[in-house]
Amino acid sequence: xxxxxxxxxxxxxxxxxxxxxxxxxxxxxxxxxxxxxxxxxxxxxxxxxxxxxxxxxxxxxxxxxxxxxxxxxxxxxxxxxxxxxxxxxxxxxxxxxxxxxxxxxxxxxxxxxxxxxxxxxxxxxxxxxxxxxxxxxxxxxxxxxxxxxxxxxxxxxxxxxxxxxxxxxxxxxxxxxxxxxxxxxxxxxxxxxxxxxxxxxxxxxxxxxxxxxxxxxxxxxxxxxxxxxxxxxxxxxxxxxxxxxxxxxxxxxxxxxxxxxxxxxxxxxxxxxxxxxxxxxxxxxxxxxxxxxxxxxxxxxxxxxxxxxxxxxxxxxxxxxxxxxxxxxxxxxxxxxxxxxxxxxxxxxxxxxxxxxxxxxxxxxxxxxxxxxxxxxxxx
Amino acid sequence: xxxxxxxxxxxxxxxxxxxxxxxxxxxxxxxxxxxxxxxxxxxxxxxxxxxxxxxxxxxxxxxxxxxxxxxxxxxxxxxxxxxxxxxxxxxxxxxxxxxxxxxxxxxxxxxxxxxxxxxxxxxxxxxxxxxxxxxxxxxxxxxxxxxxxxxxxxxxxxxxxxxxxxxxxxxxxxxxxxxxxxxxxxxxxxxxxxxxxxxxxxxxxxxxxxxxxxxxxxxxxxxxxxxxxxxxxxxxxxxxxxxxxxxxxxxxxxxxxxxxxxxxxxxxxxxxxxxxxxxxxxxxxxxxxxxxxxxxxxxxxxxxxxxxxxxxxxxxxxxxxxxxxxxxxxxxxxxxxxxxxxxxxxxxxxxxxxxxxxxxxxxxxxxxxxxxxxxxxxxx
Lengths: 380, 380
What we know:
The structure is a homodimer.
Chain A (H helix, E strand, L loop, with lengths): L6 H11 L3 E4 L2 H7 L13 E2 L2 E2 L3 E5 L7 E4 L4 H6 L6 E4 L8 H14 L6 E4 L6 H10 L4 E4 L1 H8 L4 H24 L6 H14 L3 E9 L17 E10 L2 E11 L4 H20 L6 H14 L6 E7 L6 E4 L13 E10 L3 E11 L4 E4 L8 E3 L1
Helix pairs in contact in A: 1-6, 4-5, 7-8, 9-10
């Protein structure tokens, strides 16, 4: 059986978690385990009629040949066309009347049919609708439920070469879109208008626009708004997009006109911090040490009192593994993808920030989508 | 207190439902009750780190001055900038670590602080994360929970002039995007490529692309795929997009070259059915009767055996009120918005379908976005 994920690794993680069955319904985890598949109709919305689309994928430990997928009628064509590996498709009803209870009932039946009514089931408590969870507990009174999220985070922590290629492409596209937005924003554009320009730039590059934090001048308001990007003001564009739910998250700085000497000094403080941290990233580096080093480096720039250093894993979920905080002993491994952020929130100069994405390589790290990080994008 | 929704109507619906507090967290209902507001960062994704963004809006019956909104730190700036009416903002934590349990704990505290610990709370069972619902039940052991979805559906059933203007604009934009896609699709385009063209056409018109059902020739596969739209084949584009979460849903037909006489006959059968049903829509018309009439009309065309007639309300949620089925006695009212769909799935000619959106007016109905419905879009 050809599987699109590392099946022995999943079995081993399930063993550690004490789980007999993995049961996941989030878009990111269905995509991950089904080779990118997700029913296209519900990729971007889920509420319809009085219900919510609730697909559920069940994989018994060591028995992917007994896996099942509870979906709805409308997705059968796509599942066949994309030749999804899951051996049993279970129809939980009509396309336009998705009901989490029906999904849960069908799931409970499938679990019972596999002799697993008293099994330990790892599922996603924060993500399952309350009606689905209640139904599972009612229909499987002998079962024990444990959390699946750490299992799936661990599965996704090291990216395959194919995933790295996706991350490289989307991060580059995000950086390009940001640069073009800085340069093409007409005079007197508001940050809301600038957000719409960025959305089109991302869409034209094949990405789904997810969000942009915009901050013009020293307002500190990061939501797109009626604020005009005035001459002499800095602008930060901290933008996310996705392709097949892989996320990109990049922040670059622009200025209309020229930055003040102090703004430029702050920019360079951020850049120095980013550069030094990137130089420290390699397999074997300890996450807690990297976190402390980033903060120490920012402190050395003298701008730490208004500054923040943030570092987190990236992939199908923002802020996934690896995690960085004081004392975290986990070591970096080749194939991990990391987002590094340094910002300084200066009451007069504005919110100055750089965010990069890097992948851990055999020797160090590879910058993904570094376009525009080394200097201000100037809109003249 | 100036409220962006009909507060006496909400109070009256809560009274009927026996609810003392309304507690909603879905994007469509927060938007509806907060004048379009939703935290921009989480408009298009919600999973981050190990949690999920879970805002909760609470409104005690007859006391909007005691309403509260449980959000996260990052949205305070946007809430202030947009001057959201809700008197109390409660911060449930950091931007990147949303936790449904924290949202529920803060909500329970707010409800207790208002002396409503033993109240009946109307909430959205299918939409609340299981962890949030469990926490609410634990923290409010004396409370009774009832379903809020019918209350909120009733609130949204009749559109305001402002909502009608949004629906008119987005449905027209969807129809235009579909026509341009039919005409601009290059020779040998696959339906996946055609879907991407449509996405750009919608984005350029200010809409978020949500989905497109595509069906080229007689494949009956409605998911975008590697199937090329060949000469002589019909193509249906049944596409949805949104603006501020108001949804549009339009289906138009194209053909590369010319339709066969039978395909054209089927198209006209669909169009005749749509036209006759539209002529019957007006205030006071009974939903069950309209449903029966649509089916009877389709039957008279002689293509009913392979055909389907579907009719449903539209707005912030697809398939919302009014609902149409045999025996439904509810009468149409001015300001309701309705999607009307007729299709015939012919094994040789293909999947031929028209879907229109209309608003009930004082005298009858207004077609929204009728562009391209009367004839095939020809790609030569």
